[in-house]
Specification:
The structure is a single chain. Helices cover 19% and strands 27% of the residues. The protein contains 25 helices and 74 strands. It has a 9-stranded parallel beta sheet. α4 (138-148) packs parallel to α5, α16 crosses α18 (961-977) and α20 runs parallel beside α21. The longest helix is centred in the first third of the chain and has 17 residues, at 57-73. It is found in: Membrane. Belongs to the glycosyl hydrolase 31 family. It holds the Pfam family Glyco_hydro_31_3rd.
Length: 1312
Amino acid sequence: MNEVANFKKGSTKGCADNNLNYPPYTPKIQDEVMYSKTLCMDAKQAWGNHYDVHSLYGYSMVLATEKALQHVFGGNRTLMLTRSSFPGVGKYSGHWLGDNAANWNDIKWAIPGMLEFGLFGIPYIGADICGFFDDSSEELCRRWMQVGAFYPFSRNHNAQGYRPQDPAAYGPGSALVESSKHYLRIRYTLLPYLYTLFFKASTTGETVVRPLMHEFYSDSATWGVDRQFLWGKHLLITPVLDTGVVMLNAYIPDALWYDYETMKPLAVRRQNIQLHLPGDKLGLHIRGGAVLPTQKPAVTTTYSRRNPMGLIIALDDRAQAAGELFWDDGDSRDTLKKGNYIHYKFTVLYGVLTMQVMHAGYRDPNNLHFENITILGVPHPPLSASVTHVDSGSHENSTTIVPDSSIEYDAAKEVLVLRHLSLTLGETYLVRWEVPQEEYQRFDCHPEEHADEAKCKARGCIWKQSNIERVPWCFYPKDYGYHVRLNEHTMSGIWFQITRNKRYQSRSRSESPDIDDLHVQVTYHSGNMLQFKIWDPATARYEVPVPLSVPPVPETNEDRRLYKVLYKSDPFGIQVIRKSTGTVIWDSSVPGFTFSDMFIQISTLLSSEYVFGFGETEHLTYKHDLNYHTWGMFAKDQPPGYKMNCYGVHPFYMGLETTNDAHGVLLLNSNAMDVTFQPTPALTYRTVGGILDFFMVLGPTPENVVQQYTALIGRPVLPAYWSLGFQLCRYGYANDKEIADLYTQMRDAGIPYDVQYADIDYMDRQLDFVLDPEFAGLPSLVDDMRKEGMRFIFILDPAISGNETDYPAFERGNAADVFIKWPKTLSDDIVWGKVWPDYPNVTVDESLDWDTQVELYRAFTAFPDFFRNATAKWWHQEIMDFYQTTMKFDGLWIDMNEPASFVHGTAGGNCLGDPLLEKPPYMPPLDSKHLGLNHKTLCMNSEQILSDGTTVRHYDVHSIYGWSHTKPTYDALLNVTGRRGIVVTRSTYPSSGKWAGHWLGDNNASWDQLYKSIIGMMEFSLFGIPYTGADICGFFNTAKYEMCLRWMQLGAFYPYSRNHNGKGNPRQDPVAWNSTFAEASRKVLNIRYSLLPYLYTLMYEAHTKGNTVVRPLLHEFVNDRTTWDIYKQFLWGPALLITPALDPGATRVEAYVPDARWYDFHTAKEVKVRGEKVWMLTPMDHINLHIRGGYILPWQKPENTTYYSRKNPLGLIVALSDNGTAHGSFFWDDGDGIDTVEKGQYLLTSCAVESNTLSSKTIRNGLFEADHLMLGIVKVWGIGTNITEVTLRDVTDTVHLLTPQYNADTEVSIHR
């Protein structure tokens, strides 16, 4: 009655005639009188005239009642219902839909009523079951009891003077009683699911009773559905709402649905169907993809909460499912705030249920267990089932086999039930059931195009068609491969001799017959790393000459190893098992293993579908799609594009396991190759040469994986401090004046900017080491810029023109025999290509097509063989001569080193030697593969010579040409300049990061390249090359204003931050647009420069520990599976979250806020959201940045170059955690000295906050006096209360009193 209701109109004395009681306009309300059935509008309340606050009366009563309930019941939650409501009431109270009537209209109306109150934020809602007024018929009440069992607020209620309508009134055994009992038991069984929905409503605002359109809004057929509703996203309720109906027209949305009662799947979706619903039934369906927590029902929740729990898993079309469970004591207040609850996230992937405890702050006094797990949609009986108890403390997990007596399988319904599991509530478990799915177990025997049955059987393989898209029709028999003949176990590994199964003739590729006998060596290098190598003992084969750092002595103590290695004999395969969890992370005992001279293939089962890495190519997501995708790898002058093999090769991946552990695998092979994923989940490698040499690191965290991988391949280079500044380049500068003008404009605009480049424009006819006359003033300009704190980098290509009459670079190189030639048995000539250098005395007509230009104008070029010691010496000499006699520089940019050529193979196109090397029997799916491996590069039979004198074919070492080019360039740079500088290379291979950074190539000026650049950076973080970034605003095509501005904001957080575009396109540098653009660029670059001390410290940690710099969220929050799929946000280290705008017209961006305390970088205010997706505003001049609580970040006041910013005092941002702690570190050296870390010429401090005290510990202080810094400002975020006193204790133990500045709004204290 709290509308407020009154049985009199206004009052016992009526209401005065005034504008409040009789306003100029009266809305179309009942009786068209403002005070009808309520008080006079001029009545006075504390909140104002009743005219204004009438509709708030119920709300005010709710607030008062809430206070009273808190006072009376103290720490216990209670139930409050209000009849009158207003926005905000749902925070305290539920609502019933009022005094309805016992008729079929009102049973229908209740559903739209509940859906509307779901919109209004009042999810605890329901109608009076069977009606309040009038007498209900038995049929109406029976149907109403069925649907009312699924009202969130489920109450049977009627008025005085009408027949009793509670279920018992209809008599024991009656249809109504039995039907009511049945559906109320289902309700009580599903109360854990319903309670979890209310947890989601309370924390994230999700609806409980949900319209179908909320889940299927792209299906317009759901927009008008109001006679069906959902519980959350997973339970569809379809009641009978009309008299006499047993066949009901119902809409089935576009998903797989299971009948709750029969557990059988529906055969239809996205259409109306006729459901047979006799008098005791309503429609109840579980959506595929659901994990519903359950509990054995009882007559009250007091007793049901003591009963065993369970799960109902409804697998979707991909045999996956997910769900949650929230559990606390059921009635205490503030259990969320106090952390007194259990929160589970359930996921099912490939026959593994992960019951992951996200929070365990409550222990149920009833010692509850999950007893039974029911899985719907299991197509075959399980081979076995097991349960792994994941002990988060000791990491000593235990696995138990589920006995056959506890496994029930109903083949007709395809339902699997695992009984008597006794899994303790609040603990993490993995429940596995192994079910064969034959079609996904197939391994492709004919990966080439145009497979048919005859070709398939000619290979000894099986031909069988499939209705599943992409499943191979030609696949290997189960025993295809090798079997073990001999093996020998030692403390440090296992040795095998294996023999090919000769049942299958070696006829799959006649030009490359299989090798019958192989050796295999497994070596336990350390507790977290092992190697397994497979080779031909009878014939010397090429092995990759990239040195790796393996421990000098293997790990012979089994107790110290994180893994154990098993093998299967027939077909031969290695299994690597993580001992702590029992997870098999590698299992190559699958059919198809092939080892021939020019085709090698091996497959392995994967531990989960979460695989990251393999490059270099453009990926659409960070996580690989395992639905039969193949990726080729072979270094090529190919701009980024989907499934295009690009500049470098990185046959390394990181896999996540269902236990949240991670591992990494490197195949040390540099031949052309591909990898194929399939949903098994499994992975197949194919390569055209070399051997199989695998290295595996065991983590167990993603960050550990990168640390261990870079320990193997080499830690990343520490870039010069200035190279972390903003950089500008353009292919197409006409002369040095354009560079000078740009420099002046940037300085006038006050935009931070450290490095200027020259692309090949500065070269005379694109000749290395020769200055173009149009750039005659460039050396002087560079000198002037360097005096003002700027740095300069120029480009070098490897190709050297051979058509000059006076060209020392070629003449000295030819005399030293540094250029790649044919094998001496074929010719003693250089293998000539054509790249950028032009012939002498030609005028290039750029209007001609490209191939004609190459033929008419491009000179013959020779390619240095950088494997040779003589080549490194020659390269150093040319660089030094240029530095000393032509122009100074600070870094080098090496390009076109795949190596790239503008002709295919050689000038004239005639590759000498074996044509199979140019077009091998198996061609991986590479760009232009029909043209062969020599497309846009050298002939594969070209000969190169390793530093030890060994001759190798370009066929084998092509993809490490860029790798061989990088170290000589880095060594020359350091020796010539005497400073550290930076090298940026286009083509990379594992360990390239020891000497160089990398840009992501010649990208396009398009929106998709923004998010793809994040994926690229995260992949190169995995590959051990943290100094990376994309060409800001794009290289090809014309950049648009909004896109370029958003890219400038994103690019300000690339470790390698350079704006660069191609010839023929308009300028896109920050001063090329307008003052608004320049101001936004200055703003975001000032933020970058202020945080450079933090970024430099991250680079130091990458250099010394192998940490990532650009860091995927999953590296820090691996236990939160939401982060596994995030690739449009990234971190700098552990503490800075970057959420860029990546789409045109965006004014807000959807962001995931991981489960930690976060502060808005711009305002220092705490973000009151955790573990959720939220929409963040992002106006055009803004990028969302957040600092993680618990961390201390060093910073400096920005300047226009790092030369000046480095002179400013150091500051600290102290972002406090929930418990008032924080920690961080700070690295500092002279910024560009050579080997400062190795020589100890640096400062390293650690900082920590505990008990309101910030302490600093010096770990190393080897700085020269000139590089010392002063600490200026300390900002403490999230301090909570006003600071009255701050003291500083210095190294002499003297105490100084400081005066703090405190901002109560942001909870920030500043100390100077």
